[in-house]
Amino acid sequence: MSVIKNFQTQANKGTWVSATKCNVGDILQVTTAPSIDNTSFPGKVYLVMDVKLERTNEIMKLRLSSAAVNNLVGAFSDNETTWIGKRIRVAGKMNYAGLGKEGLIYVPA
Fold it and tell me: N or C: which end of the chain has fewer CB within 10 A?
């Protein structure tokens, strides 16, 4: 396998949910129990899980901030095992000026 092909194979594993890959109205179905990620970004804590983008059936990784979790926990509960099978709707997109990029707003589907 060429270096480029090898890179593409490795780089495309575990594709993350992002504003460039998802549309407003898309549904993400949770496929694994959420876990805490406090190592990817120093000083930041996120909830991460695998999800299926229903529009394409692609398995992706979803990283949620505390604000996003607060939008979902009322409907999903604070027990991570009950999140498996739950559906999350992309309700909108938001520009994060401080980061210079667009993010997604999540609500229960």
Answer: N
Q: Which of 55, 53, 95, 47 is nearest to 72 (CA)?
A: 47
Rounded Cα distance between 82 and 33, Å, is: 8
User: With a cut of 50, which residues of the chain have pLDDT below it?
Assistant: none
Residue 24 has a pLDDT of 97
pLDDT in the model for residue 1 = 67
The total number of residues written for the chain in this structure: 109
| C-alpha radius of gyration, the chain, whole number | 15
What φ, ψ does residue 68 adopt, rounded to 5°? -65, -40
Q: Where are the domains of the chain?
A: 15-108
Residue 1 tokens, joined = 């396998």
Question: In CATH terms, is domain 15-108 a member of 2.40.50?
Answer: yes
